[in-house]
Design goal:
heterodimer; A: seven-stranded mixed sheet; 0% helix; globular; B: mainly beta
């Protein structure tokens, strides 16, 4: 079956612009997660959804970052007024239930010029 | 503050030999641990996990050992194969049902023919 799908795979934009990153989880998975991975580091937790609601957004670095999952399936991570430090690979993961293994997509590589 | 540490950025092992990847953690609340494998331009893939009620978990060529008193875990791969060449991440959480994974920085494993 299809895995976690993330689009676009690459995004290059200028400092100050707004970006949206999309995640399609595995069908039937109720939990969805966003992580960010900087060069040479492991993934860093951003936010977790259970259904439509954000159950834990403690990893969002500041109020320029926001994520939604309006119908409990697809999620969008939104970054306003992008900064060069936002450049990273943004990973999405989903799991069947809250206590099952997280399955990752291939990520979106975001580059802020 | 790095709560999960993989102190070896790289490891080179001959095909057929044992690969041992190490991971240390500082947060005593962590009680569920996972290993992920990552190929370039792909998302991390779940390999194996262990709960703190166990000290060993085995799955085929992969075995994870947990030493709670030392706050240390290791992943053993035997025998190592060329396809095992990848970056390996150790991750931890506070409970199997916890959604926030804390990752180490990763170890790049190279299997030489």
């Amino acid at each position: 079956g299809a895995g976690v799908s993330q689009t676009p795979s690459n995004k290059v934009t200028e400092k100050g612009k707004y970006v949206e990153l999309r995640c399609d989880p595995i069908s039937g998975h109720t939990a969805l997660y966003w992580y960010r991975q900087s060069l040479g580091q492991g993934p860093e937790f951003l936010i977790y959804f259970q259904g439509t609601g954000a159950a834990d957004d403690s990893g969002l670095p500041n109020d320029r970052f926001f994520a939604v999952r309006p119908e409990g399936s697809v999620s969008t991570l939104k970054i306003q007024r992008t900064e060069r430090g936002d450049s990273a690979v943004y990973l999405c993961a989903s799991s069947l239930t809250a206590d099952s293994a997280q399955h990752f997509g291939d990520g979106t590589r975001l580059s802020i010029l | 503050d790095q709560q999960v540490k993989q102190n070896s950025p790289s490891l080179s092992v001959q095909e057929g030999r044992i690969s041992i990847l190490n991971c240390d953690y500082t947060n005593s609340m962590f009680d569920y641990f996972l290993w992920y494998k990552k190929y370039p331009a792909e998302g991390p893939t779940f390999l194996i996990s262990i709960s703190s009620i166990k000290d060993k978990n085995e799955d085929g060529r992969f075995t994870v050992f947990l030493n709670k008193s030392a706050k240390h875990l290791s992943l053993h791969i035997v025998p190592s194969q060329p396809g095992d060449s990848a970056v390996y991440f150790c991750a931890a959480s506070e409970g199997q049902g916890a959604q926030k994974l804390v990752f180490g920085q990763g170890t790049r494993l190279t299997i030489n023919p």
